Amino acid sequence: MALKAVHQVPDNNAAFSLSSTQFLKGVNDDDGDQVKCGYEFSPNFMVMGHRGFGMNMLQSSDPRMKSFKENSILSFNSAAKLPIDFLEFDVQVSKDGCPVIFHDGFILTEDKVGKPLFRRTKDGKIFEWKVENDDPLCTLQEAFEKVEHSIGFNIELKLDDQVVYTEEELTRVLQAILQVVNEYAKYRPIIFSSFQPDAALLIRKLQTTYPVFFLTNGESEIYIDIRRNSLDEAIKVCLTGGLQGIVSEVRAIFRNSGAVTRIKESKLSLVTYGQLNNVAEVVYMEHLMGVDGVIVDLVEEITEAISGWIKPAEDGEQDSFLGEEVQMQAKTSPGFLQQQLSSLLELPPELLYA
Hints:
Layout: E1 3-8, E2 26-28, E3 34-36, E4 46-50, H1 73-80, E5 86-93, E6 99-101, E7 106-110, E8 117-120, E9 126-128, E10 138-139, H2 140-146, E11 152-157, H3 167-184, E12 190-194, H4 197-206, E13 212-216, H5 231-241, E14 245-249, H6 250-255, H7 257-265, E15 269-273, H8 280-289, E16 293-296, H9 299-306, H10 324-332, H11 334-345, H12 350-353
Parallel strand pairs: 4-5, 4-16, 5-11, 11-12, 12-13, 13-14, 14-15, 15-16
Antiparallel strand pairs: 1-7, 2-3, 5-6, 6-10, 7-8, 8-9
Helix pairs in contact: 2-3, 3-4, 10-11
């Protein structure tokens, strides 16, 4: 079986990214009157569907990880039927200047009629991209036109870590994305985010309508660019560049729970991502810690789990998912979080810190 790359994101055009409370601005409607943008974020906990209804893990035996093709219109609209606030997806710009929604840097296809698609995992293994409910790849414009208009878009600006971009190169790519957003977003809530600090800072300079978040894996990997290596560095990037929030790998906030306090004291919002966000007890602990929202793969399961405890309690009721005593200890004792999560999940504590 011969595999070949049929689409390669060009070196100077590669990948493109991610919210919650204090960004209320006005835009003008068709009559010139000022109206509120959709991103007056809910004071409650936000849930975002990762690549729509969840990312595809082709190597997984869990059928939920292969139910809908990720980053597709079908996946987006399926997730939008559930009580979520945003869809998170990856945007890159093709060689001919078209913003497309796709995660990987290239597509593998078998060299024959029909051209089935393949994905390569981080460890180099290749799997045929087969899902239960297939759907074509789509452009950013198509997402704006075909996805339920009330749902927010968390647009991750996907860039190639192996490329050093000039400001001119970044500007060209970001302007192509902004052109589509400005023409088709209308009043849809929008967030921009990126792991690439310069892209996040530049998209903030190029527009002030939509909030920009800095993505970080918080020391899970170490980069030459020190701005990418910790939550504290992420705070600095946001404060110096006028960004509105941080999207962190979930384990990072348990390794460094004090950073959550520093993020909130800096008037920044905090959203997390990662596989632990598919565990309801972990998500609940994050809620207690002050996290503003989560990006999840098991969208249906997590929204169902949290629907009973995230809504404001009625008079005389208390938020009792884990009990009032647990809530108080979680808020006042960071070490208590590790103990509780290990007990709830029956996991050794080091897995939270791996």
